[in-house]
Amino acid sequence: MSVADGLIAVKAARNNMEQTRVGYSVTKNVGKATVRNHVKRLLKENVRLLDLKAGWDIVFIARRNIVTADFHEIGRSVVRLLRRAGLMADGIEKTGAQVN
């Protein structure tokens, strides 16, 4: 299954395990190494704040426009895509994650 918007594409597949594994792909067309690492850190932190359904392999693929987005824009995009894919556990974020 895959869903996407202007900032991120998300691909997911069942993994027949009790845990969810998450990967991040940020290619060179996004920017140089420091930019790519910054984007990965922003994505990882936004995903860490969420409660995901168990038993999935999820890959977040950054698109070029993500470079201009801030932490909260990326967070809204992540939540919107995960909800659309049905990968949020009960649709509720962990404490501390406020995404409108």
Task: Give a description of the structure.
It contains two helices and four strands; from the N terminus they run βββαβα. The chain has a single domain (2-85), classed as Ribosomal Protein S5, domain 2 (2-Layer Sandwich). By secondary structure, it is an alpha+beta fold. The chain starts with a strand and ends in a 15-residue tail after the last helix. The chain has helices at 33-48, 71-85; strands at 2-4, 8-14, 21-25, 56-62. A four-stranded mixed β-sheet has the order 1-2-4-3, with helices on one face. Helix 1 (33-48) packs across helix 2.
The sequence of SSEs as H and E is: EEEHEH
CATH class: Alpha Beta
Q: Which term fits the overall shape?
A: globular
Low-confidence stretches: 95-100
Question: Approximately how much helix is present in the residues?
Answer: 25-40%
- Can you list the strand order of the major beta sheet? 1-2-4-3
> How many β-strand stretches?
4
Helical run tally: 2
- The overall average pLDDT, rounded, is 92
The radius of gyration computed from the alpha-carbon positions, rounded to a whole number of angstroms, is 13 Å
| N-to-C CA distance | 24 Å
User: What's the CATH architecture?
Assistant: 2-Layer Sandwich
Main sheet?
Answer: 4 strands, mixed
Structural domain count = 1
Per the CATH scheme, the topology name is Ribosomal Protein S5, domain 2
